[in-house]
């Protein structure tokens, strides 16, 4: 995280995304590794029960969760991080395995 945007990487697939949305495969365990480039942020996907601090210079991880339903959710910053804090959110799309594979290939990665 950084004021006022989240950047998402998919190292296990060899791809990165700086888009406003995260793509996640349904029924596959996930874990986020979170840090901040500037100030304290709070990474939260409430629909998945995820909430962890994003501290400058530190790496924190979320518990492993498995999204079980295809749908659209939201990442929010839940720590007041400055003037545009209320705009620091991103979409989360939980999609089928085949849709996720197609997306990760379109991002330059491998399924």
List keywords for this structure.
111 residues, mainly beta, 5-stranded mixed sheet, two-stranded antiparallel ribbon, 9 strands
Short note summarizing the structure:
By secondary structure, the chain is mostly beta strands.
Topology:
Elements: E1 8-10, E2 15-17, E3 21-25, E4 33-34, E5 41-45, E6 50-54, E7 60-61, E8 71-77, E9 89-95, H1 97-106
Parallel strand pairs: 3-9
Antiparallel strand pairs: 1-2, 4-7, 5-6, 5-8, 8-9
Number of helices: 1
Report the major sheet. Answer: 5 strands, mixed
Outline type: globular
Helical content band = under 10%
Biggest sheet strand order reads: 3-9-8-5-6
Element string (H = helix, E = strand): EEEEEEEEEH
The gyration radius over C-alpha positions equals 14 Å
Based on secondary structure, the structural category is mainly beta
The end-to-end span amounts to 25 Å
Mean pLDDT: 93
Low-pLDDT regions: none
Strand fraction band?
Answer: 35-45%
Beta strands, count: 9
């Amino acid at each position: 995280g950084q004021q006022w945007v989240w950047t998402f990487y998919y190292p296990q697939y060899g791809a990165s995304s700086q888009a406003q949305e995260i793509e996640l495969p349904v029924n596959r365990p996930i874990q986020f590794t979170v840090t901040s480039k500037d100030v304290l942020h709070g990474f939260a996907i409430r629909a998945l029960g995820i909430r962890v601090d994003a501290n400058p210079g530190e790496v924190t991880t979320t518990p492993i969760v498995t999204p079980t339903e295809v749908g659209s959710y939201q990442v929010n910053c839940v720590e007041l991080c400055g003037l545009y804090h209320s705009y620091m959110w991103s979409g989360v799309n939980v999609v089928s395995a085949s849709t996720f594979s197609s997306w990760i290939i379109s991002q330059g990665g491998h399924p």
